[in-house]
Design a protein that fits this description.
By secondary structure, the protein is α+β, with helices and mostly antiparallel strands. Helix content is about 25%, strand content about 30%. The strands form 4 sheets. It has a 4-stranded antiparallel sheet, covered by helices on one side. Strands 7, 8, 9 and 10 form a 4-stranded antiparallel sheet that branches. The longest helix has about 30 residues, at about 195-225. Residues about 185 have low confidence and may be disordered.
Amino acid sequence: MGLFDKLFEKKICAICGNEIKLLGNRKLEDGNMCKNCAEKLSPWFSDRRSSTVAEIKEQLAYREKNLETVKEFRVTRTIGGDDVKILLDEPARRFVVTSARNLVTENPDVIEFANVTGCKINIEEDREEVKRQDKEGNMVSFNPPRYTCEYDFYVELYVNHPYFNEMNFKLNSTSVMTTPENGVPGNRMPNPRFNPEYKQYEEMGQEIVEILTDVRQQARDEEAAAAAPKTAVTCPWCGATTMADANGCCEFCGGSLK
């Protein structure tokens, strides 16, 4: 069978059983998957080609379960950039990273605060030299050289998750530009911190890092406290030797032991 024949060979999706349309095939390690099934996978998942049919089915089962969690998700705080946002459900100690307006339609992965393993901001610079035309019409460097710089701001979020461990996204929708005129007088290198937009996105990234670091630590502290063995104490209200209940109260009189 030639290459042309293989292109038009009938293929069946190993996930849903439907025929795969032309150019709609998504290769798996041991089978084929249609475009519609592939779109149901996590947007942060990148190992499709090396995944088996069984592994993809397991992930799709997780995605169905995740959708039920999304339906219960209640946004209490929003942080993030121009397009992609981090939505927090603080009472439930979880969050999503998404640009969607309708969470149920998008089904973003719900991440527990305690499963954050790291977070940092990455600022990428693209530098281009500004040149001038000399008397002979040649383009030559200034002395000292002058540059125009463009900056993009990314959040690198690391998580403990069965299907991915990184969630990297951009804060700004358009690059932030600085020119030599933005620089310190006498300095031909532009100083980005003289640019209000640069400061805005830098502070935005720092806020995200601080918030996710804080909520992660709080969640882990609460888990550690819940797992710690309880000790008997004397109730200051009734004098009984008791163990604190879930509300931190005496099991006999209900008085606070905190």
